[in-house]
Design goal:
seven-stranded mixed β-sheet; single chain; 29% strand; 18% helix; 6 helices; alpha/beta
Length: 311
């Protein structure tokens, strides 16, 4: 049976009252989650418009920092003492993200969002498998909430290099029907990669749609495994971004046309970051692994992506 997904937004700037905003947002909370930092800011208008898969672009300060930094929207909240908050997760591995990780409660940060396309949602009540690596799993929490509210079963596979780099294992367990952890060093869950657990989870849950977010080598492997199993796969790519609004073309990725099969370079920031994993031209991308090449050339899930070239 074919599984149909609700079509994506045609254009993130296309509808008045539904596009991105630039706001000065107050930091409400920051907390340490293992190797990562989660920051909550008050941004009611962005929270109201945000959908799973979209991201915010945050201005940072520090030596050599000029460009904003993109962060997937981890969760939004419209309830509580301060309504209209958004959470994003970061790994402080450069001057820009280190500056952001040091922000205190009541500090003000400059945020633009929501940006990019959102994950399409199944039109039928089918089991969904969410696969994430490192802190790339962050937007899948938001997606899990939306899918669960729609009455769909949600299972999750979360992978990382080691247990410390698994993001928020307790919350992942709480919000899904099942969660499987994989670590490279075997310190938590299945020893190996997320793809080492996919076949068993798919067989046990009857997965009909796969969503992925994390390092590009992981997304490539997940997309190819989904294609082998004939399962629709939607991924949020992690490409280097400079402007975040489609102007600079630094985040292009080869995407095959659904109609003609021809490859065209698409901007991850404004045409994505969500794409069909089976339409990505992995074989002509910089993530291509030729037959016979050692897999150890592929970065481990959870490996931080270096920040922009302006640092």
């Amino acid at each position: 049976m074919t599984t149909y997904l609700r079509s994506r937004d045609p254009n993130v700037f296309g509808r008045p009252g539904d596009g991105p905003l630039k706001v000065l947002a107050e930091v409400i909370q920051r907390r340490r989650d293992g190797a990562y930092h989660t920051i909550t800011v008050a941004a009611p208008d962005i929270a109201e418009r945000a959908k799973p898969g979209q991201f915010v672009n945050v201005a940072v300060e520090g030596p050599g920092t000029i460009l904003r930094r993109p962060f997937s929207i981890h969760r939004v909240s419209s309830q509580g003492p301060i309504a209209g908050t958004i959470d994003f997760v970061l790994d402080a591995h450069g001057p820009g993200t280190a500056w952001l990780a040091e922000r205190q409660t009541h500090d003000i940060v400059d945020v633009v969002g929501p940006l990019g396309s959102a994950f399409p949602i199944p039109q039928q009540n089918v089991p969904c498998l969410l696969v994430g690596g490192g802190y790339g799993v962050a937007p899948l929490f938001f997606l899990s909430e939306v899918l669960t509210r729609a009455g769909l079963r949600v299972d999750m596979i979360v992978g990382a290099a080691n247990a410390e780099r698994i993001y928020n294992a307790i919350e992942a367990k709480r919000m899904t029907a099942s969660v499987t952890f994989t670590t490279e060093d075997g310190s938590l869950g299945v020893e190996g990669l997320v793809t080492d657990a996919m076949d068993d989870v798919i067989a046990a849950t009857g997965t009909r749609v796969i969503y992925g977010c994390g390092p590009m080598p992981m997304l490539r492997a997940v997309s190819l495994r989904a294609k082998e199993r004939g399962i629709p796969c939607q991924i949020a790519v992690e490409e280097h971004m400079a402007c975040g609004v489609g102007v600079c073309w630094t985040c292009v990725i080869p995407i095959r046309s659904a109609k003609t099969g021809q490859l065209r370079m698409k901007r991850a920031c404004i045409d994505g970051p969500v794409f069909s994993g089976t339409r990505v031209g992995w074989d002509v991308s910089r993530w291509h692994v030729p037959d016979g090449d050692a897999v150890e050339d592929v970065a481990e899930p959870g490996t931080p992506i270096e920040e922009g070239a302006d640092e």
